[in-house]
Amino acid sequence: MNPKYYKHKAGLILESGQLLQDLTIAYHTYGEYDPQKNNVVWVCHALTANSDVFDWWSGLFGEDDYFNPKEHFIVCANILGSCYGSTGPLSVCEEIGKPYYHEFPNLTVRDLVAAHEILRLELGIERIHTLIGSSLGGMQALEWAYNLNSNLEHLIFLASNAQHSPWGIAFNESQRMAIAVDPTWKESTNASGLEGMKTARSIALLSYRNYQTYQDTQSETDQDKQDDFKASSYQNYQGLKLANRFNAYSYWELSKIMDGHNIGRGRISPEKALSQIQVKTLVIGVESDLLFPIAEQKFVAQNIPGAQYAEISSLYGHDGFLLEQKQLTKVIQSFYK
């Protein structure tokens, strides 16, 4: 299913005060909008995903899944800075007549949310029944919920945090360091930094999974083996897989956006900001998540009035939010009941 595109002629004034011209938002919708039934489910996606949520979150979103187009009007917009249709570093800047590349402006989570709000108004959506997001998507959902409030009924917040941690920032910086040592990163081509990004993805994967994941899936059966280990091949494979579908500029940009996330910026504190979110909220943590430990989700749940907290188990750490669809469905069903 191909995305739709909305071109916003007025552009977007970023949190920095800079004007992002030529604003294009790529998005997918599934089902029919019915204001009388209050049936909008809006999905905010994570770092390297796209707006086709049926593709990357099947089992939770799909024709026969819990969130389906027969009952819901599902919307997912590709975030700014990405490479899947919305304005990003590879987009042509009309002012200079060539792609932005290294000149793409620095964005924040609030800028991503501002683009979502532009699309919401364009689609004529007055009220969102459920706003759901995980990881970087959770950051967006939390920030947008703060602004929406009376126009939002339910928030589902997964495997994310109220303010990105020094631990998470350190992982992201290590990945950017890997990109920066790629000699091609100084160039301005679509392929700049791709070799470095392969290494960056390998680093990231260690934070997405955990010791037990590798123990259970990458252990050797040949006790005499001394080279060419499964774990080595797996890391190389995952780096190449991302390089074949993404670009280093977007990877760099989106990781910086994550680092700057803080729901409390300019609002006294994260606790104070969270206390202003007055919607029915479900916070879900993954017990084996190393990148976003469950203490971070518990903090959010404790500070949003009346929020419910649920926890799922997974061998796959942070990536459990993508893979444990049956557990998520059960928890979400219980939340609505």
TrEMBL record:
The taxonomic lineage of its organism, from the top, reads: Bacteria, Pseudomonadati, Bacteroidota, Bacteroidia, Marinilabiliales
Q: Name one Pfam family in it.
A: Abhydrolase_1
Task: Specify whether Cytoplasm is a keyword of the entry.
Answer: yes
Q: Which species is this UniProt entry from?
A: Ancylomarina salipaludis
Q: In its UniProt entry, what is this protein called?
A: Homoserine O-acetyltransferase
| Top-level enzyme category | transferase
Q: What does the record list as GO biological process? A: homoserine metabolic process; methionine biosynthetic process
Q: What is its quaternary makeup?
A: Homodimer.
Q: Which InterPro entries match?
A: AB_hydrolase_1 (IPR000073), AB_hydrolase_fold (IPR029058), HAT_MetX-like (IPR008220)
Pathway participation: Amino-acid biosynthesis; L-methionine biosynthesis via de novo pathway; O-acetyl-L-homoserine from L-homoserine: step 1/1
Which of UniProt's keywords are assigned here? Acyltransferase, Amino-acid biosynthesis, Cytoplasm, Methionine biosynthesis, Transferase
Record keyword Amino-acid biosynthesis present: yes
What is the gene name? metX
Q: Which PANTHER family match?
A: HOMOSERINE O-ACETYLTRANSFERASE (PTHR32268)
